[in-house]
Amino acid sequence: MGTDAPAEVEILWAKYVGHRTSELRNELITLYAPLVRFVVGRLGIPPTLIGC
User: Fold this and answer.
1) Cα–Cα distance between 19 and 34 in angstroms, integer?
2) Reported pTM
3) Which residues have a Cβ under 8 Å from the Cβ of 28 and sit 6 or more positions away?
4) For burial by CB atoms within 10 Å, which of 3, 6, 20, 32 has the most?
5) How many DSSP H helices and E strands does the chain contain?
6) Are 15 and 30 in contact (CB under 8 A)?
7) What are the angstrom distances between the C-alpha of 11 and each of 7, 14, 20, 27, 43?
8) CA–CA distance, 2 with 9 (Å, rounded to integer)
9) Of 3, 5, 14, which Cα lies nearest the Cα of 34?
10) What tens-digit pLDDT sequence spans the chain (52 residues)?
11) DSSP 50
12) What does the alpha-carbon distance between residue 40 and residue 19 come to, in Å, rounded to a whole number?
């Protein structure tokens, strides 16, 4: 993602809604993985329970 990341994410979501390909899904998963790990860590869930 570049300097205009929010717009790029919005475009990626729009593409995914329109096409629902596994490649676009994987891009979204990769994009949001750090956020998910952060939230799971804040909830105190051990990483071994979620397959990290």
Assistant:
1) 25
2) 0.73
3) 12, 13, 16
4) 32
5) 2, 0
6) no
7) 6, 5, 13, 12, 30
8) 10
9) 5
10) 666 789 999 999 999 999 999 999 999 999 999 999 899 889 988 777 555 5
11) T
12) 30
